[in-house]
Design a protein that fits this description.
Layout (H helix, E strand, L loop, with lengths): L20 E4 L2 E7 L5 H4 L11 E5 L10 H4 L4 E10 L7 E6 L2 E2 L1 E6 L2 E7 L5 E4 L7 E10 L10 E6 L8 E6 L8 E2 L3 E6 L4 E11 L2 E10 L6 E6 L5 E5 L3 E6 L13 E7 L2 E7 L4 E3 L4 E3 L2 E2 L2 E5 L13 H14 L3 E3 L7 H10 L2 E5 L23 H18 L5 E8 L7 H16 L5 E5 L15 E4 L11 H19 L3 E5 L18 H16 L4 E7 L29 H12 L2
Parallel strand pairs: 25-26, 25-32, 26-27, 27-28, 28-29, 29-30, 30-31, 31-32
Antiparallel strand pairs: 1-14, 2-3, 2-4, 4-10, 5-9, 5-14, 6-13, 7-8, 7-10, 11-12, 15-16, 16-19, 17-18, 17-20, 20-21, 22-23, 23-24
Helix pairs in contact: 3-4, 5-6, 7-8, 8-9
Bound molecules: (2S,3S,4S,5R)-3,4,5-trihydroxy-6-oxo-oxane-2-carboxylic acid.
């Protein structure tokens, strides 16, 4: 028997059908900034309706909504509150509250009592509220914290100042990643119901034998010895296979494969007692050779970008208009893939990628990590990766795997971005992390993106694909167009010689202020960005082991303030408003030819 409120790892996406109902609790919530570090907890703000509130939209980051600088730059906790009703029609059902993501820490209270808490800003969590929710009105309070330390991902460090200027103490959040630390309830909040005996989890993987697809599935339910009926439906909802087993391997004759750019989705349609769940999945295979990445036996070349969840006003809040626009732009420019740099993206985006045949490298927020055994300490003066970081890194991989394991769009896991992999201690750490993810998923390749010199790298041997982020023409030799091609080519060859694995350039590019034109080109001009990318591509085109190019970045995005950042990072091929810069047209021509 499940304890009420206990958190679980299986995370089926809520569906709305004749067996399950769902309500979105999005819209305007009440909101209050915690003006002292944890005053709200000390005074138990959750026990009665929040006072002195302002309006706050959900889903959205709170940082850019108001005109208050203190809220934009806030470090600590904030409080959200709203009411909701449980319909009488849902009587005798199991009730669940589900949060798509709360960044980075959440404590959830229902009618004044804590029901769950979660750490990690980019993955869903839920609470069974069957026993606690009132029929009729309920008060839902969410405390959201954005402090990053070395026991979470991304890692960060808090510096305190307590002086006459700051009698209550001042906290400064330090971190070593290049995106604004947006916070809030970033993804939808949903209340849903299922029958009391229900389908808990589904895992599907597929293999292909000649023309037939083999679908290996396993279903978990919370009740024993119940009969189950499983159908496999094609896109026309025709039954193409069926089974009466919880775990089985069924054959789909003459299967239509899920192909990049041409998705085909089957459905696993499951009936269990009163419950019913339909899960889309694709039939496809992935294999690697020393120089190739094969999807369904055919070499696949990654064309695309590192992205961000980022936009004006709503920050990292889910924006379906933006996501559809982004998919349109990916198609327009001839991209076939993206990396979820530097954290898992909304499930709604992953579902769209499944449907549109967009290939995804799925990344966890392990960015800006140092090991502090060498010269390369980065911005952190004391803190470094420790046992808690390792334990939490594994937990995030587990939560991500649980959420995304059934997505055909996910072809590779990226377990880190630019760790200090020149430091000796990174070796053991990543050997362990890699082993862990391979135990969870023995099928998908593993990678991490590297920015150290090839001679110094201590960890890419644990990966299946070597991914490097390279800024020739920008951080290395800014403005020196003629050095880009030889530098990158020499570098690429060394990485392949060292590891004998296919290589993706997961980042390259140049900051570019939209509207700045200059001939001959100078850095920051649109002409320079175009040339810089062309020169990088020249080197990649001459290396047959390069299996992909992801430009940094898809669109301009907000960062912390810095002298190298003009109201954010401007390496976008599109502006933050999702309009093309000059380079976009040249890239489009190149990628559309490379079909
Ligand atoms: C990188 C990081 C990315 C930054 C980018 C840059 O290597 O992976 O997060 O935004 O460089 O523009 O500096």
């Amino acid at each position: 028997q499940m304890m009420p409120g206990k958190r679980r790892f299986d995370m089926l996406f809520p569906v709305d059908n004749e067996a399950r109902q769902m309500k979105e609790l999005n819209g305007i919530w009440k909101f209050k900034r915690d003006n002292y570090y944890k005053q709200g907890f000390e005074e138990k703000w959750f026990e009665k309706p929040l006072e002195d509130v302002i309006d706050m939209p959900v889903p959205s980051s709170y940082n850019d909504i108001t005109t208050d600088q203190e809220l934009r730059d806030h470090v600590g906790w904030v409080w959200y509150e709203r009411k909701f009703a449980v319909p009488r029609l849902w009587k005798d059902q199991r009730l669940v509250l589900r949060f798509g993501s709360v960044t980075h820490h959440a404590v959830i209270y229902l009618n004044g009592k804590e029901i769950t808490r979660h750490k990690g800003g980019f993955l869903p969590f839920e609470a069974d509220v069957t026993e606690m929710a009132n029929e009729g009105e309920n008060r839902l309070t969410v405390a959201v914290g954005n402090i990053l330390e070395w026991d979470c991902l991304p890692v960060g460090h808090i510096e305190y100042a307590r002086d006459e200027m700051h009698p209550e103490g001042q906290m400064e959040q330090k971190f070593d990643f290049d995106f604004f630390n947006y916070s809030g309830i970033h993804r939808p909040v949903r209340l849903y119901c299922t029958p009391k005996e229900y389908i808990e989890d589904i895992s599907v993987r597929t293999t292909v034998d000649d023309k037939d697809g083999m679908v290996h599935y396993e279903i978990k339910t919370n009740a024993e010895e119940k009969s189950i009926k499983v159908y496999i439906l094609d896109e026309k909802n025709q039954v193409v296979a069926e089974s009466n087993e919880m775990k089985d391997m069924v054959l789909v004759k003459d299967a239509q494969l899920w192909q990049p750019g041409s998705a085909y989705l089957y459905k696993l349609d499951i009936y269990f007692g009163q419950d019913h769940y339909t899960l889309p999945f694709g039939i496809r295979t992935i294999q690697l050779t020393e120089k190739q990445f094969l999807i369904n036996g055919k070499p696949f070349y990654f064309k695309g970008f590192g992205k961000h969840e980022d936009s004006d006003i709503r920050g990292k809040g889910l924006d379906e208009a933006l996501n559809v626009r982004d998919c349109e732009l990916l198609k327009w420019i001839g991209a076939n893939s993206f990396r979820t740099s530097h954290y898992p993206y909304a499930e709604e985006m992953m579902q769209m990628a499944d449907q549109k045949g967009i290939v995804v490298i799925d990344e966890v927020p392990a960015v800006g990590m140092n090991f502090f055994d060498g010269e390369n300490g980065g911005i952190f003066t004391e803190d470094k990766v420790n046992e808690k970081t390792l334990a939490y890194h594994k937990q995030v991989l587990k939560e991500l795997y649980q959420r995304d394991k059934n997505h055909p769009c996910v072809v590779m896991w990226s377990i880190t971005n630019e760790p200090h992999s020149s430091e000796e201690a990174s070796r053991n750490y990543f050997e362990e992390v890699t082993k862990y993810i391979r135990k969870l998923d023995s099928e998908r390749p593993i990678t991490g993106t590297m920015n150290v010199d090839v001679e110094d790298d201590k960890i890419s041997q644990f990966f299946d694909v070597v991914c490097i982020n390279r800024y020739f023409g920008w951080y290395v030799g800014a403005g020196k167009i003629e050095r880009i091609y030889p530098s990158l080519k020499t570098d690429l060859i060394k990485w392949h010689e060292k590891y004998g694995k296919p290589v993706i350039v997961t980042e390259y590019g140049a900051d570019t202020i939209a509207g700045l034109h200059k001939l001959p080109e100078v850095i920051f001009s649109e002409e320079y960005q175009k040339r810089c990318i062309e020169e990088n591509n020249k080197a990649m085109d001459e290396c047959d082991f390069v299996i992909g190019e992801h430009i940094w970045a898809f669109a301009d995005f907000m960062t912390a303030f810095g002298l190298k950042r003009v109201d954010g990072n401007k390496k976008g091929i599109f502006t933050r408003e999702r309009q093309p810069k000059t380079a976009a047209f040249a890239i489009r021509e190149r990628w559309r030819k490379m079909l």
